[in-house]
């Protein structure tokens, strides 16, 4: 008797794997690469795992696949013109699939994603920038509509319809220094 195949699939395994890799990185365990980052005199070193970097970044994949075996099991990679905070955020993203950054850093994160050829981060930044732009456009539209409503509302209460103005001319006699005499001269 033959049994039908069944699919065993874990929904939590990818997240658990990422979490465990992040913990190993944070503790410095099994790290086989050190990435040195320097920008305008600020320098930092980040221990990481070649497999994680290569799986998430085509840049690192090319570097690691083309390195000489004489380099030994531990590699060093030097990146200049990448800000330390941005690379730290990049690492957090590739190890956790999420990172929190200030809105004004989203463009820089997109640039580092493109430089390191990290498609997931690039797409994430692009989608966030798109949402931010749509939000700004919606705010501008709402502001414009409220301004138009206020201008229309301000024009209505003080305005006197033209037909009424012709029927009832304003009484200027009280404001005129000559009083009723000036009014009778106008009529004549």
UniProtKB/TrEMBL annotation:
Could you tell me which Pfam families the record lists for this protein?
BTB (PF00651)
| Domain BTB: start-end pairs | 31-103
TM segment ranges: none
Record bears the keyword Nucleotide-binding: no
The cross-references to InterPro entries, in alphabetical order and at most eight, read:
BTB/POZ_dom (IPR000210), SKP1/BTB/POZ_sf (IPR011333), ZnFinger_BTB_dom_contain (IPR050457)
Protein location: Nucleus
User: Segment Disordered: which positions?
Assistant: 145-188
Query: Mind telling me what this protein is named?
Result: GZF1 protein
Species of origin: Prunella himalayana
- Which lineage is the organism of this entry classified under, starting from the top rank? Eukaryota, Metazoa, Chordata, Craniata, Vertebrata
Name the gene that codes for it. Gzf1_0
């Amino acid at each position: 008797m033959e049994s039908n195949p069944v699919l065993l699939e874990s929904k939590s395994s990818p997240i658990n794997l990422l979490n465990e890799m992040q913990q190993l990185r944070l503790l410095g365990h099994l790290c086989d690469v050190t990435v040195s980052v320097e920008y305008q005199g600020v320098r930092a070193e980040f221990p990481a795992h070649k497999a994680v970097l290569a799986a998430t970044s085509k840049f690192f994949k090319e570097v690691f696949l083309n390195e000489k075996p004489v380099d030994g099991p531990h590699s060093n990679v030097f990146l200049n013109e990448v800000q330390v905070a941005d690379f730290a955020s990049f690492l957090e993203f590739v190890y956790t699939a999420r990172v929190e950054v200030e809105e004004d850093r989203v463009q820089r994160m997109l640039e580092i994603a493109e430089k390191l050829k990290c498609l997931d981060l690039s797409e994430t930044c692009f989608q966030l920038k798109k949402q931010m732009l749509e939000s700004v456009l919606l705010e501008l539209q709402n502001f414009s509509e409220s301004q138009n409503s206020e201008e229309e509302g301000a024009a209505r209460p003080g305005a006197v319809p033209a037909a009424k103005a012709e029927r009832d001319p304003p009484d200027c006699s009280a404001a005129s220094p000559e009083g009723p005499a000036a009014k009778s001269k106008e009529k004549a």
